[in-house]
Amino acid sequence: ATFEAVSTKTLLTMRMEFPSAADRDRVVKEYGADKGLAQTLARLGEHLAKQMAPKWPMSRDVQQSQSRGEQ
Prior knowledge:
By secondary structure, the protein is of the alpha+beta class. It contains 3 helices and 2 strands; from the N terminus they run ββααα. It has helices at 21-31, 33-52, 58-67; strands at residues 2-6, 9-13. The protein is elongated, with a radius of gyration of 21 Å. The relative contact order is 0.07.
């Protein structure tokens, strides 16, 4: 997998190589590889969203600072 900065976003490129199209089709059919990849990417998206979320509501932080007289 590679990650590439593109403007304000990140492009994730994942590649899988198979000896033949028939082998690829078998893996998709027998193991649900296409669905597994979609689930993995969804979990990655959830994980990244949690990492980017503030640890507490920003409005609460501002209110606490103001009540202590901080600017």
